[in-house]
Amino acid sequence: MSEYQALKEECYEANKQLPALNIVDLTFGNVSVVDRDRGVLAIKPSGVGYGVLRPEDIVVLRLDGKPDENHILDLEALTVEGEFRSSSDTPTHMRLYQAFGDIKSVVHTHSRNATAYAQAGRSIPCMGTTHADYFYGEVPITRTIKPEEIERHYEWETANVIIEAFQDIDPNQVNAVLFHGHAPFVWGSSGKKAVENAFALEVIAEMTMKAQLLNPEAGSLSQAQLDKHYLRKHGANAYYGQK
Q1: How many domains does the chain fold into?
Q2: Could you list the residue range(s) of the whole structural domain that residue 152 is in?
Q3: Residue 133 appears among annotated catalytic residues
Q4: Cα angle for residues 22, 131, 10 (degrees, 5° grid)
Q5: CB-based contacts of 3, cutoff 8 Å, min separation 6
Q6: pLDDT digits (tens, 9 = 90+) for 60-88
């Protein structure tokens, strides 16, 4: 049995939840999970359908990779276990783990409503308490990625553009982003929690879009109500749910 079996199982189970929750189409999405103590991440293999995915198919790579002076990131050299090529989004996941030291799992989907906001170049404002239960404020939209960044290393620079968008935002409080013209990236404290956050984001995107259609003049939730709903579920004084 693999020494990374538990990590691969967690990653596998999280990936299988994406089609179960109807937040991916075809193979448009992936989940990774990190083991910081071992310095590795596990991620879905590229292009493998969810219906045939097995725990042993999950690819494990070193976490400390970075592009060389020619802007090449050799994923094959970083692979420590797995017969398949890892997801094409692996460099994005890897760089996000390096920058956001508390996150344990990253989810990328093309869920339809959240992706519509990304394609429209619009953030998702916090208009209701459902949003406030999960994200402490609006879900941001990144700037457009520059041609030279695409040419240099598209997937790695995708993460850098995301990181730039969080200069004044705590990624532990707003654990999702819309990549301009692309789709959402979401993260969390485990594979299961990250997928839950990705599902919540899609639900919230649909609610917000409908609210904006019903009343284009509708504003954001008040700061007081945002604070109340977010902080009763998160942080040292949270009291929602069971101990």
Answers
A1: 1
A2: 5-231
A3: yes
A4: 45
A5: none
A6: 999 999 999 989 999 999 999 999 999 99
Listing DSSP states for 227-239 in one string gives HHHHHTTSSTT--
Assess whether 240 carries a catalytic annotation.
yes
Phi, then psi, of 109 in degrees rounded to 5 = -130, 170
- pLDDT tens figures, 142-189: 999 999 999 999 999 999 999 999 999 999 999 999 999 999 999 999
The residue from 117, 133, 168, 230 that is catalytic is: 133
User: Is 130 among the domain residues?
Assistant: yes
Specify the pairing of strand 40-43 against strand 29-35. antiparallel
Residue 242 within a domain: no
What CATH number did the domain enclosing 178 receive?
A: 3.40.225.10
Q: Please choose, from the candidates 48, 45, 110, 116, the residue with its C-alpha nearest in 3D space to the C-alpha of residue 81.
A: 45
Tokens read off for 184: 């959402």
Phi, psi of 137 (to 5 degrees): 120, -175
* Residue 93 and residue 37 in contact, taking contact as beta carbons nearer than 8 Å: no
Question: 186 - beta bridge partners?
Answer: 107, 176
Q: Which residues pair with 31 in a beta bridge?
A: 107
